[in-house]
Structure formats: C-alpha cells, structure tokens
Amino acid sequence: MPKHVLLIEDEPNIIEAISFILSRDGWTVNTHSNGTTAVDTVHARRPDVLILDVMLPGKSGYDILRELREHPETEGLPVLMLTARGQTKDREMAERAGVNAFMAKPFSNSEMLEMVRSLSTP
Amino acid sequence: MTTLNTLVAVCLGYVLFLFVVAFMAERSALRGNGRWLRSPLVYTLSLSIYCTAWTFYGAVGSAARTGFEYLTIYLGPSLVMIGWWWVLRKLVRIGRTQRITSVADLISSRYGKSNLLAIGVTILAVVGTTPYIALQLQSVTLSFQVFGTPAPAADALHDYTALWVAVGLAVFTVIFGTRNLDANERHHGVVMAIAVEAVVKLTALLAVGVFVVWGLSGGLSETLARIDASPLGHWQMEGGRWAGITLLSAAAFLCLPRMFQVLVVESDDETHLRTASWAFPLYLMLMSLFVVPIAVVGLDLMPAGSNPDLFVLTVPLSQGQEGLALLSFLGGFSSATSMVIVAAIALSTMVSNHIVMPIWLRFTGGGASVSGDVRHVVLVSRRLSIAGVVGLGYVYYAVSGGGTALATIGLVSFAGLAQVLPAMLGGIFWRGATRVGAFAGLTAGFGIWLYTLFLPSFGSGMILPDALMQNGLFGLGWLRPYALFGIEGMDPVLHTLFWSMAFNLGAFFLASLVSFPSPLERLQGAQFVNIFQHSGAASSWSGGVVQSEDLMIMAQRILGAREAQALFAREAERQGHPGALPETSPDFLEALERELAGSVGAATAHAMVGQIVGGMSVSVEDLMAVADETAQMMEYSSRLEAQSAELSRTARQLREANAKLTRLSVQKDAFLSQISHELRTPMTSIRAFSEILRDGSALGPEDQAKYATIIQDEAIRLTRLLDDLLDLSVLENGQVSLNLRQGLLCDVLDRAEAAALAYTDGPRLQINRDRKAETLVLNTDLDRLSQVFINLISNADKYCDAAQPELDIRVVQTAESLVIDFIDNGSGVSVEARDVIFEKFARVSDGQAGGAGLGLAISRQIVTRLGGAITYLTGQKGAAFRVIVPQGMALAAQ
Amino acid sequence: MTAPAEDRPRRPSLFLERRTYRRRRLMDAARLLPLLGLLLWCIPLLWPSGPEGVTSSGALTYIFCVWLGLILVAFGLALRLRSEEVDKLPEARK
Which chains does B contact via 3+ CB–CB distances below 8 A? Predict the structure, then answer.
C-alpha cells in the first residue's frame, strides 16, 4: 500500500519538483499551498509524512507545526520541514516546535527522499 | 593769695592723679577684674562730659546776662535721656552690633559704607568742634588769669598757658586714647578719669552753690527772696529761644562726637542706659541747681563790669575762700580737660578712619591684608590726628584771641553738629532714607550753618567782609547771613537753626524720595531700622551655659548629632570639665569655628558663632562674605551640574547610537534572511530539476523540455533579483548618476508598456491611456523613469485580480508638477499593507508573484532621486499609484 | 492625650502673656515720659514776661520740681523694667 505524503508549499516549481521525486518513488503526494487552511487539510488527508515549508502565505510553518503537535491525532505525525532561510536559529525554532527532520533549501533530491523514507518507517 | 606757682603745682598734681587713675583702670581692665569699671554709675558719670567748661563757667555767665536761658542747655539732654527708649536704646544697640566707632561711621555705615559721607560728617565734626576746644583752652586760660596777678606779662602768659594745656591734653589723650587698638574702641582708663573728673566738677559747683546759698545768703528762702529782688527777679524769656535751644541741645546731645563716643562707643552694656536714664538728668539738675543763686550773688557782690563767666571763681575768691576757689578752679579745669580729651579721641577716630587711612591705603596700594603693619599705621595715624585736632583748637584760640562770650561759641558749635541729626534719625527709623538724601541734607544744612552762623561768628569783617554782612552775597539783600530771604530781626542762632534745619530736612527727604539706594545700602538700612528684630536680647542675659547649649544645638544641625556631641565632649575633657558642655573659651570657639567652617565655609561659621556668642547680629561684611562663599559654592555646584548634565547627555547619545546600531543590526539580519530566502527559493527549483534531468532517463522529451524551461525561468528570476539588489544598493547609497535627457512622456510610457508586458501570458492586461495628455516634453532620466513605469505596469499585470484586468494611466499637469496615476480595476492593496508596500521584500500578495518584492522599493528610490514622489492613492477602486515628477523637468511639447 | 496634659503647658504661657503685656505698658510709659516732660517744660512759654509776670523763684521752683518729678518717674520705670528683666532671666535659661 503506497504511503501518503502531504506537501505544504507555495512555490509552484518546488511543488512540482518534490511531487515528481516522491511519486517516482511510489508515494502518493497531495499538495497544499495555503498556510491558513493547512491544519485542516492535514486532518482531512491524514498523511503518513508531512513536508512543510516555513514561509507560507497566511500562516508560518512553525505555527502550523505547533498546532499539529497540540492535537492527539497529529501529535506523532512525522514532519519534515523545509526552509529557504538556512540559519541556525531557524533550525532551533523548528526543533522547539517539534519537528522530526529539518532541511535547508536547496536540497539534494536523494537526501530528501531518504529523509522522507526514514520518517515513514518508525 | 594763691600764687600762680601753687596753682600750677595743684594742676600738675591733679593731672598726675588723673594719670594714675587712668593707669590703674587700664591695668585692672587688662587683668580682667575691672567689673566696677563697667558699672552703670561710671557710665552715667562719663556722660557728664556734656558739661564742659562752657557749662561750668558759662552757665553762670549766661544766667547773669540773660536769665533762665542756660536751663535749656540742660533740659534738652534731660529729655533725651528720660526718653532713652525712643532713640538712645536703638543707637546703643546699633552701635554695639554694628561695631560703630563714631558718628561719621554710623552715618557712613547706614548709608552703604559711603566714605564720602563719612568724610563729610568728619569735616563737619572737626569744623564744629574746633571752636569748642578753643573755648576750653580759653576758659582754662581765663581761670588762670583770675588767680594770676594782672602783670604786664599776662598776655604772653595766657598764650603759654593755653599752649601748655593743649600739649598736656594731647599727651594724655595719646597715652590713654591710643594705648590699645581695641576693636570695640573702648578706653577704660579715659572713661575712669572722666568719671573722676565728673565727680570733681559736681562737687566743686555744689560746694560753691552751698557756700553761696547758706554761707553768703543765709538760707534757701533768703536766697529765693534775693533772686526775686535781683535784676533777674522776674521770668524773662524769649519763647522762641526757650523752645529752640532746648531742641537744639537735645539734638546736639545725640550728635556731638564726644557724646556719641561716651554714649554709644564706650558703652559696655545697654542696660546701663536704664540707670543713666534717671541718674544723668539728676546730675544735670544738680549741675544747674545753684547757677542762678551764684549769678545773682555775683551780680550783687562783684564790681560792675566784671566777667560774669568767672563768678564761680571770683565770688569765693572775693570772700577769701581760696580753698573753695581752688576746688572750683579744679572743677572748671576738669570740665575743660575731659571735654578736650574725649573730643580729641572721637575726632581722631573719625579723621584717622575716614580720611588718613583711606589716603594712606591708596598711596600704599591697599596692602590692608598685612594686619600687623596696618595696626601700627592706625596707631600712628590716631596719634597724629589727636595732636592735629588739639592743635587746631589751639590755633583757633590763638587766632580768634578769645573775645566773644563763651556761651555763644557753644551754641554755634551745637547748631553745626545738629545738622547730622536728620541723617542719623532718618537712618535709624526710616528705611527709605538714602545716601543721596543724607548727603544732600548734610550739605544744605552745613552750608547754611557755615554761611549764616559760623563764619559771621568770627565777627563782622573777620572772614566775611562787612559789605557782605550788610548787603548780602553778590549784593543780594535776601542773602544776608543774618536775614536769609529777607526775614530780619531773628535771633541769629534761631535764624540759622530754622533755615538750616528746614533746608537740611527738605533736601534729605526730597533726595531720599527721588533717589534709589544701592543693595548694600538697603541691607544696612534694614539692619539699622529693624535692629531689635535682627539682634538678639541684651548680651548680659545669656550666661556661659546658655551659649554652650545654643552652640551645641547649632553644631548638631550642621555637623550631625553624633559628631557634634563628640566634639563638645572632647573639648570639655580638654578643659577638664566633668560635663558634656565645655566653657565657651576662645580656644573652644576657634576649634568649633574651624570645624563648622569645614561644612559651611569660614565666613558663615564665623557669623554663626559670633551671633550666638557675641549676642551680635551679623554685620554686613559677614553677610557679604557669606554671600561670596555661597556664590562660590553655587558656582562650583553648577559646574558639577553642567558636567553631570554633559555626562548624561553623552550617555544618552551613546544609548541612542547603540539602539540605532541594534536596530540596524536587526534590519541587517532581517535583510540577509530575506535575501537568503529569495535566493534559495529559485535555486531550490533549479537544483531539484537539474538533478531530475541528470538522473532521469525515464523522462519523456515533453517533460524534459518543461523542466528545462522551469530551470531557465528560475535562473532568470535569480538574475533579476541580483540586478534589483545591486540597483537598490546603488540607489540607496546615492551613487547613481542621473542621465538627463529630453523626451516625450508618451514615448516613455510606450516603451514601459512594451517591456512590462513582453513576456506575460494569460489574460492580457488592457491599458487605457490618453495620448494627447501625454504629449509632454520631459527633461529627466528617461530610462530610470521608464523603470518605474515598467514596475507599476507589471505589478498591475501580476496582481490585478479582476476578470478583465484594466489599467488606467492618467496624466495631469499642475502648476508645479506632473502627476501620473496608475489605477487598475482589481481589489487593491489592503489598508494594513499600504504602509509597507514601499519597503524592501514587502510582498503582500499570495505567493504567485515572480518578483522579490524589491520593485516598489526601487521605484521609490528612483522617483526620490528625480526629485519627485510616489504614493499609494487611497479612495480608488483598485490599486492606485501616483507618481509625481517635478514640473522643472516637464515641459509642454509645443 | 488627656486634658490635663494639654492644659499644663498652657497655664504658664498665659501667665507669661500677662507679664509681657505689663512690660509693654511699661515701655509705653517710658516712651511717653519725655513727651510729658516736653509738655510741662513748654508751659513757661505761656508765662508773661516782665515785672508783672511770674517771679524767678517761682519759675525756678516749677522747673526744678518738674525735673525732679521726671527723674523720680524715670527711676521708678527703670526699676520696674529691671525687675521684669530679672524675672525673665531664669526663663531664658530654660
């Protein structure tokens, strides 16, 4: 049974790239590009792995993650966070929000794939 | 018959006796056991120098000539003494607290330490007193003459007598008047000698009186009957003279330099006044009691034409009472000598302090700080002044040659010195009195006195020529010395008294009213007039314990309780006292003053201690010193304040700079973070797709082309971002050079429209323009302006969310500028976003836009460089931007 | 804060006030005395001059009696003022 990934990202080209890479590996990829409605989408889709961008229109990735962690259903959801602001303080903020993995853009496709794979197998 | 030789021997013996008395008094005062020296009795007796030889001899003469007029000379002072609560109490208090040394000092001190006034009063005093001293010399000479045989050599002898008396008096005065230079100007020896002489005077006159009444007339009632039967039998008195001379003598009693000396300067304790208030009138009454009987008996017994001034001597002599005559002679001698001595001391103080010392100080360059040196100079100057004053009296005597009746000279002198009265009383009762007023009053009064009484007193033709006496100055009748303003027939003394006082008072009040006092003068005026509020109670009330306690209270306030108590205990222990309070010894006071000076400054400490211990109010010098100190402290503290203000200003600037740096740092961090994001985002796509292309053999050619296009787009986006960043950096640093050219606005817009919409796809933006309005010649950097237009048009293209996007470009030319509006038909920019759209990286749209959010920031920089402005227009349907280009750069295309 | 405690210090001050009051009246008397003397000694101005006027012995007696009277009153005032001050002395020391 194919694993399900939800990608929340607002750059169309990046969405296209990640979707391509994951679906080629056999993942089911859903995408969403609005921060405000992201949490609801996660609850509706119930993905196995969530890939979350930080800079989103409406609501930041950190806030979304914190909300997810407060919910029992999504408390343990594996989350990979992507950000274009690769400073250490961004990483620290992500960890404090309860992230499972953190990657700075631009990333290597294979590394990203490996990361998603490792997150999906507990 | 008493020979001249025995007379001289008696005189010398008497003088020697006085020397001894004065010497003993000085000795015991020095040893500090001279309490009896400062008894009220001695004070009262010392006042008797009012009764000079003029009184002793002249009163009888006056009674024989004019009846009861002589009484007025005593009534005036009696009233002043009985009314001590009015004036004398205040004068003595002022004299003690302000350390007044003479009348001149009092006047000068009250009117702001004016030396000019002091000199004026001194001159007035010298001029007024010199004839009086001459009068004393004359009386001594005359009394010698009574005893002497009428020999041919008599005239020469008189001169010698006067000369020897003058020299002797000068020597005595120098010895006892300038022995020590006491700050209080008190001369115990002199005062004691005067007191003894007062007793001799009174005894002598009473003895002659008793002899006349009971020895010659046979009893009191017989004497009264004899008086009624005599030429003086009925009351004969000119009312004007009775009242006028009573007032004049009262005034003179206060103003005479010698009276001021004994009343105020030599006063040890103001409570002595209380005793003197009744005792001195008693003395005066006794002095005048037997005057009329002696005069009446003298007129009876003595041959016609004999000098009534000498009845006191000649009546006993004629009855063979040589011993009584000798006593009487000694009484007259005492009267004369005591007056000369005190007058010389008083005048020499004035002359030395106000004339000699200022001149000496000026010539020596004012080295007054060398105290030992000055002390010596002051003594020498005093001694010379004494010799000068007595010498002047002798010269006056020798030149005038005796002559006029004694009483006349006395009144002339009184009238002269009474001119000081308005300035004196005005000074101590009226705060409005000013130096100018005092000077004007004194000058007017002195001038009139000089012209109408003093100069004529030498006799017609002596100094003032006869013609002037008869016809007046410059031949003006109303300026005749004895008939000013044409009022004739007045008694000369009353005439002078009336006019001089009228002008004196008038000038004093008028000038005081119109002039303005200096600060020092006002301060002194307040101190003098309100002396009883400023100075404490009489010092005799406060014992040593009270002082120590007061000092303790004060010291605690200044030093703090514990330290003050420690200091006092230490001092008490040093003095060997069991208690906590030490004696107020000079050592202790000095130590305390030093201690206090550390806290409040030397002058303040001195003033504070002085006020408590001395019972003195603070003198003006003290206050000035305090003010100086305070000013210095204030200056010092204001310097400190300025420094601390500067420090805090610097600190504030540092804080501001720091805050600015922090803000800049935060901005820089945010900017770098933004840049990083903007660069990484396209690079992410590029890297992802290039890896896909590299790995992906399974890709169809369509996908390959698609991904390659994405890579290219993102690369272009990156390039544009870098361009924008560089552009913005150049613009912000002001390094851009404008390339000014002329061109048509419509051409610029055409180019911008074409460039903005070149690569766009999707629903094509419709642009509505009015080409006619755009036909304007611009003189500006056309490329830069075009860049702004491109940005605005492409923004509309990207962000306008209408189904049929339209952009209106409207051009309006105003007087000062050219206004170009870009208005689309979308939903516009939200209110909260309008503030930030011109900031860097301020993208407000939801993502899809291709720009990095630098466009509007760059546009704003450009328009600002061109001298115009770009704003967001509110109140439009869609997004609306207004570009304003200054008119100087826009010319209508003709 | 009982009533007697408040009353106690007040009583001497009342006493003191009466005393200072009397002292002030004494001062007034001391001030008035010379004016009285001046007035009495101005009475001779009203006397007629010449042979039909007041005799010299009468004039002398009048003037000296006034004199003596003034001296006695002044003496009395000085004594009273002095005793007032002596009374005040211990208070000043408190």
Answer: A, C
Query: For B304-356, how does the pLDDT look when each residue is reduced to its tens digit (9 = 90+)?
Result: 777 888 888 888 888 888 888 888 888 988 888 888 888 888 888 888 888 88
CATH 3.40.640.10 assigned to domain A30-120? The reply is no
Cβ contact B75:B249 at 8 Å: yes
Q: Convert the pLDDT of each residue in B354-401 to its tens digit.
A: 888 778 777 765 444 444 456 677 788 888 888 998 998 888 887 776
B→C contacts (Cβ < 8 Å), by residue, are 67-68, 71, 75, 78-86, 224-225, 227-228, 230, 232-237, 239, 242-243, 246, 271, 274-275, 277-278, 281-282, 285, 289, 292, 537, 541-543, 545-546
ipTM of the shown complex: 0.91
Query: Rounded mean pLDDT of chain B?
Result: 79
Inside any domain, residue C37: no
Give B832 or B125, the one with higher predicted confidence: B125
CB contact under 8 A, B239 and C45: yes
Q: Which two tokens stand for residue B27?
A: 């000795």
Contact A63, A71 (CB under 8 A): no
Q: Tell me if chain B has a CB within 8 Å of the CB of C49.
A: yes
Buried b (16+ CB within 10 A) or exposed e, B517-542: beebbebbbebbbebeebbbeebebb
CA distance B186 to B194: 13
C26 within domain boundaries: no
pLDDT along chain C (94 residues), means of 10: 41 54 81 89 80 79 91 88 56 35
- For residue B284, give every residue at least 6 positions away whose Cβ sits within 8 Å of its Cβ, in sequence order, or none: B50, B51, B74, B77, B78
Cβ–Cβ of B75/C41 closer than 8 Å? yes
* Chain-chain contact of B846 with A57 (C-beta, under 8 angstroms): yes
Min Cα separation A42/chain B (Å):
20
Instruction: Name every chain B residue with its beta carbon within 8 A of the beta carbon of A55.
Output: 677
Percent of chain B with pLDDT over 90: 7
CB contact under 8 Å between B546 and C81, yes or no, is no
**pLDDT tops 50 at residue A20:** yes
Whether residue B847 and residue A33 make contact (CB cut-off 8 A), yes or no, is yes
Cross-chain CB nearest to B228 (options C38, C56, C63): C56
Task: Decide which of 1.20.120, 1.10.287, 1.10.10, 3.40.50 is the CATH code for B643-713.
Answer: 1.10.287
Which residues of chain B neighbour A17 with C-beta distances below 8 Å?
A: 684-685, 688-689, 692
Structural domain tally of chain C? 1
- The CATH number of the structural domain formed by B738-892 is 3.30.565.10
pLDDT recorded at residue B726: 84
What sign results for the dihedral spanned by CA atoms C61, C64, C68, C70? positive
- pTM of the model as a whole: 0.59
Interface test with B, best of C38, C72, C82 (most B CBs within 10 A): C38
Residue range(s) in chain B whose domain bears CATH number 1.10.287: 643-713
Assigned token pair, B733: 């640093």
3-state secondary structure of B890: strand
How far is it, in rounded angstroms, from Cα A41 to Cα A6?
9
**Measured between CB atoms, which of C51, C53, C71 is closest to B278?**
C71
Whether C54 and chain B come into contact, CB under 8 Å, resolves to yes
Q: For the segment B457-495, what is each residue's pLDDT rounded down to a tens digit?
A: 776 666 666 666 666 666 666 667 666 676 666 778 888
- Name residue B833's beta-bridge partners: none
Q: Please give, rounded to a whole number of angstroms, the shortest distance from the CA of A107 to a CA of chain B.
A: 7
C39 touches chain B (CB under 8 A): no
Residue C93 lies in a domain: yes
Helical packing angle, B291-301 and B272-289, nearest 10°: 20
Give yes or no for a contact between B518 and B439, defined as CB atoms under 8 angstroms apart.
no
